[in-house]
Predict the structure.
Amino acid sequence: MAVTIAPNQAIEVEMTEFLVIDREGNSHEVEGAEGASFMEAIRDAGIDEMLALCGGCLSCATCHVYVEEAAIGRLPAMSAEEDDLLDGSDHRTLLSRLACQIFLSAELSGLRIALAPED
């Protein structure tokens, strides 16, 4: 995808596609610019169940998602702050992550994530 930033200038933006399962079990194919967070891409796709109340500042856990088990090893390590926020969720599992802390990249293309229930 090319983005024009000035007359006669364009930059290529690499896009990453992934699959989101909403709380009703519906699948959504989502695409976002590499480097953006999964949270941003999900909200930009109009999936309103992604509350993300803090806007990605790592001060809430309303972007809690479950990542497919096969992909856990491809994700960056969880920070202590993310771990602490997830500890406050009644729905935390070994597959839990905050979507604001995972960033789109070619390595994560095709990832399947499910929105966790609201706390």
Remarks:
- The chain has two helices and seven strands.
- The longest strand covers residues 15-21.
- The chain has a mean pLDDT of 93.
